[in-house]
Amino acid sequence: MSVELALIEQMREFETPLVAEAMGAMGCKEPEKYYTGSDIKLLTEISEPMVGAALTLVADTSTPGNKGDANDLWKAYEMIKESKLPVVVVVKAIGSRPKHECMLGDGMAKILKASGSSGLITDGGARDIENINKVGYTVFGCGTVANHVGTNYKISKEPIIISGVSFTTADLIHGDRDGIVIVPEIYHKHIVEVCTRARDVETRVHLFWRRTNKTLAEKRKFVTRMFKEHYEKCRQLFENR
């Protein structure tokens, strides 16, 4: 995987909306390609952002009469361990009853975390949430589902679509209570620096907006100037990469 461990470690310092803002500051022209919608929810407790390199799978846990096949799931555990990186497992539900998909419970969460996974994203459901919270594993999905039929997991060789967003193995993923973003490789070199700058600019703007001795016109002028300068500096940094 092309994502560096040092980058993943540093990105845990920032909230997901700030990461999205930083990508915009560097001139991301199609932001709609890189963030999930409100259909994908954080199902577990979280103490810091989920950050990691993606590993994509497809799974059917809902089709009646489905024959279970977990061979690729065990291969995925091995791939996670061998990567020596925090890995975000991304699972596309492909069964015949989408609202009955249950992609993992506490047992699977335990082995995923022990293998080195930092979290899982799915457009299906999950169960045993209370116990998963005790494990300290992060799960995003559509909701909770109490059971499943025979489970069939396959490692995906092609990009998968969840919430209208295309996920590919090795993508850098960042997620917290506000949602999930993918950080394209083109932004990896400068994303930490630009996130740091974005946080500083937002803090200064918010401090100014709190003031009751400033008019709305003054506040609008201030934020316009601050973000204009911020975007210019960040795009110059990005273009000189």
Outline the biggest β-sheet. Answer: 8 strands, mixed
Number of helices: 7
The proportion of strand residues reads: 15-25%
Write down the Rg: 20 Å
How does the helix and strand content classify structurally?
A: alpha/beta
Mean pLDDT: 96
Tally of DSSP β-strands: 12
**What's the overall geometry?**
elongated
Which series of helices and strands comes N to C?
A: HHEEHEHEEHEEEEEEEHH
Quaternary structure: single chain
Helix content: 25-40%
- The CATH architecture of the largest domain comes to 3-Layer(bba) Sandwich
The end-to-end span amounts to 21 Å
CATH topology term of the largest domain = Glucose Oxidase, domain 1
CATH class category of the largest domain: Alpha Beta
Instruction: Tally the structural domains.
Output: 2
Fourth-tier CATH superfamily name of the largest domain: Ribonuclease E inhibitor RraA/RraA-like
**Low-confidence sequence ranges:** none
Structural account:
The chain has 241 residues and is of the alpha/beta class. The chain contains seven helices and twelve strands. Helix 3 links the parallel strand 2 and strand 3. The chain has helices at 5-11, 16-25, 71-83, 106-115, 129-135, 191-210, 216-239, and strands at 41-42, 50-60, 87-93, 117-122, 125-126, 138-141, 143-144, 152-155, 160-162, 165-167, 172-176, 179-183. The strands form three sheets. Strands 1, 2, 3, 4, 6, 8, 11 and 12 form an eight-stranded mixed β-sheet that branches. Helix content is 38%, strand content 22%. It has two domains: 5-184, Glucose Oxidase, domain 1; 191-239. The two termini are 21 Å apart.
